[in-house]
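Translate structure to sequence.
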């Protein structure tokens, strides 16, 4: 799960610093206090390395409102104080604070991810649950966070004491910050997750900790496209039932997908079609999270094949990010103008006042369309599923002839 995290560590976030904004990070504004669906859909963004794109550009192009900023680590020299990438102390940070201010000023918000692959994690250095929680509370307080992600990977993942510190800290933060959205992300395998992942689930169960979701990363492990990832997610579903004691619906609602767009570190290839396969599964089964690594990589490779800053697959900029927007229940901006449609007439000479259903258009919950002289209401997000047909999920409610 290397995820090219430090491929371009020396690149400064010049785009972020160029606009003068307040560096005082208070509570998010009313427009930035987002629903949990946005935090569950927030894709990862490294704000100070891997040639970060301007988040406002991404927001304007896609409709995205939330980013998962990565990563908080222990200092490279040791200690129990939070830093960005092990090098920049949270206590004195202004650069990421600037990024967050700009995102919130544009009507969005952020979650912060702690851990990731490589580096030293606070769960390893803080010594106990209370100290680990106190270090993370500094991050929550500094940036007025409404969401936090525990990305539990190597080398901490195999350290029982460190994982106990991380999960115990997550439970403490959840109790001390009412409404905090907490996600736990861990490596994926063909069976869902491996032995250390099941031990993690057992530890969470033993301390009475229930995050908003447990997400797996089904890549860098011999995966081959979206169907193999769906199979892994179904495996995780079974593990959540058996290890957490949940029924099927509860397990799905606490399950998440954290993918990798394009070429993985192990040279697996994940195209937009693969994301569509997993997206259909996630929305069809009511999964609680859909995210990916990373926005930094969500662009075609031009003049470089650096896997940290581009996807190495054919795409337009931000094609993968639009899946996050759709999962949050929003409609991404149309890349081309929608052609006008003709309103059908009923056999009796009346007319349907709602616009005719368009196969290419994205619809969200409560959108109303006309089709074959009937009026239909969408129950949730859909695209391409024809009203009046059984379909795979029965997304359209038939309101009768119009």
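Result:
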């Amino acid at each position: 799960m290397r995820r090219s995290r430090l491929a371009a560590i020396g690149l400064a976030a010049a785009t972020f610093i160029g606009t003068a904004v307040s560096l005082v990070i208070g509570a998010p504004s009313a427009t930035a206090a987002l629903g949990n669906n946005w935090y569950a859909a927030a894709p990862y963004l490294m704000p100070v390395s891997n040639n970060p794109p301007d988040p406002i550009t991404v927001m304007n192009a896609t409709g995205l409102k939330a980013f998962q900023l990565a990563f908080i680590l222990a200092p490279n020299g040791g200690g129990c104080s939070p830093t960005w990438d092990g090098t920049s102390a949270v206590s004195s940070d202004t650069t990421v604070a600037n990024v967050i201010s700009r995102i919130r000023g544009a009507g969005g918000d952020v979650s912060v991810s702690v851990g990731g692959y490589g580096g030293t994690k606070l769960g390893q250095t803080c010594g106990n649950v209370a100290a680990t929680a106190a270090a993370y509370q500094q991050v929550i307080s500094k940036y007025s966070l409404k969401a936090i992600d525990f990305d539990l990977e190597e080398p901490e993942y195999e350290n029982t004491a460190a994982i106990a510190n991380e999960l115990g800290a997550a439970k403490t933060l959840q109790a001390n910050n009412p409404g905090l959205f907490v996600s736990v992300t861990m490596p994926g395998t063909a069976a869902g997750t491996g032995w250390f992942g099941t031990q993690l689930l057992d530890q969470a169960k033993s301390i009475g900790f229930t995050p908003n979701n447990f997400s797996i990363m089904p890549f860098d492990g011999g995966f081959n496209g979206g169907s193999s990832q769906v199979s892994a997610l179904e495996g995780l579903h079974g593990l959540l039932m058996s290890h957490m004691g949940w029924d099927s619906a509860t397990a799905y609602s606490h399950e998440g997908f954290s993918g990798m767009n394009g070429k993985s570190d192990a040279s697996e290839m994940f195209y937009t079609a693969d994301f569509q396969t997993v997206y259909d599964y996630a929305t069809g089964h009511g999964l609680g999270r859909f995210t990916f690594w990373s926005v930094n990589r969500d662009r075609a490779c031009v003049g470089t094949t650096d896997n940290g800053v581009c996807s190495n697959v054919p795409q337009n900029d931000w094609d993968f990010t639009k899946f996050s927007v759709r999962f949050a229940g929003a409609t991404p901006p149309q890349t081309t103008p929608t052609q006008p449609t003709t309103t059908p007439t009923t056999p009796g000479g009346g007319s349907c006042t709602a616009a005719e259903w368009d196969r290419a258009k994205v619809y969200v919950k409560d959108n109303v369309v006309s089709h074959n002289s009937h009026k239909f209401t969408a129950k949730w997000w859909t695209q391409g599923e024809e009203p009046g047909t059984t379909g795979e999920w029965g997304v359209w409610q038939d309101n009768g002839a119009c």
